[in-house]
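Design job #97: recover the sequence.
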């Protein structure tokens, strides 16, 4: 029996699907008041990976998104910048210049996103090139077909090798610049294709065991993408892995989170499942494109007492 299987057996239990769905629904009903809501909205902004992953992306669109990432409301400097901008590899060169010195991280999807259906050697080369082109974070996809066939060791090994690329390229960059570089790896499970909560839990544990800095629900290209129940399963896997190893792993729900009310429910669930230590962009992100505008609209409402329409904000 492989070490991966042994570790899974130690942390494995059947996920109660009904209980998970009921508990997740409970978080959606929670409400918070004005000052706490402003804090929550600012926290959400600081946790967003502002994302554009379209075939029609251009340099102009990337510059526009980077500007918005740095100053979401140009006239209000109290609004924090987002956590990161997430792009296809070909767009990195434009974003790197635009984000320099801003504190906003630069993330890139890699490893034959969104399918993962390339030979591992090419996926390793893809990852290394992204880092050399300026990526601070890599969002990789796992081989869902291998996972569903029960080839857990194969999935573990591909994540481990991509993590090694991140480590090796970080060291090269550190030696070259004289500054510490630490490229983080986010592992996308594509939970909409994993079929069961038990599979989501097992894939989460495999990813963490192989060295993932974050585990992420979805590419945003498959439905269902992020949901509260599936995120709860992943948060509980993070908790159990932390209790077993002492290693902190981040979480990134991505795809389909469009409203601030939904995002607040995720924050409540995060706090009540993992605690305040995880309430930081270092350990929690929202992968989103349209969420930011709704959060900004709600934030202006809380500060001024009236809504501005979405046309007051840039369309991403």
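Job complete. Output follows.
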């Amino acid at each position: 029996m492989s070490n991966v299987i042994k570790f899974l057996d130690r942390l494995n239990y059947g996920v109660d699907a009904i209980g998970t769905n009921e508990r997740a629904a409970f978080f959606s009903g929670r409400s918070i008041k004005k000052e706490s809501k402003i804090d929550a909205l600012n926290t959400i902004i600081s946790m967003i990976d502002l994302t554009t992953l379209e075939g029609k992306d251009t340099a102009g669109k990337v510059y526009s998104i980077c500007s918005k990432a740095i100053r979401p409301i140009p006239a209000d400097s109290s609004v924090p910048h987002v956590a990161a901008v997430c792009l296809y590899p070909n767009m990195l060169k434009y974003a790197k210049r635009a984000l320099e010195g801003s504190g906003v991280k630069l993330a890139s999807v890699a490893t034959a996103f969104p399918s993962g259906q390339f030979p591992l050697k090419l996926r390793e080369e893809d990852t290394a090139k992204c880092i050399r082109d300026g990526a601070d974070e890599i969002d990789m996809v796992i081989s869902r077909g291998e996972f569903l066939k029960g080839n857990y060791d194969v999935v573990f090994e591909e994540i481990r090798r991509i993590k090694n690329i991140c480590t090796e390229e970080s060291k090269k960059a550190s030696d070259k610049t004289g500054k510490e570089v630490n490229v983080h790896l986010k592992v996308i499970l594509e939970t909409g294709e994993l079929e069961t909560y038990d599979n989501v839990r097992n894939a989460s544990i495999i990813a963490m065991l192989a060295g993932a800095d974050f585990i992420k629900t979805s590419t945003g290209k498959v439905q269902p993408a992020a949901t509260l129940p599936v995120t709860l399963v992943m948060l509980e896997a993070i908790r159990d892995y932390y209790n077993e190893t002492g290693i902190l792993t981040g979480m990134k729900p991505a795809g389909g989170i469009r409203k601030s009310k939904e995002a607040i429910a995720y924050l409540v669930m995060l706090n009540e499942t993992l605690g305040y230590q995880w309430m930081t962009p270092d350990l929690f992100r929202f992968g989103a494109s349209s969420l930011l505008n709704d959060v900004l609209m709600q934030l202006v409402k809380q500060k001024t007492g009236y809504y501005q329409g979405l046309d007051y904000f840039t369309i991403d």
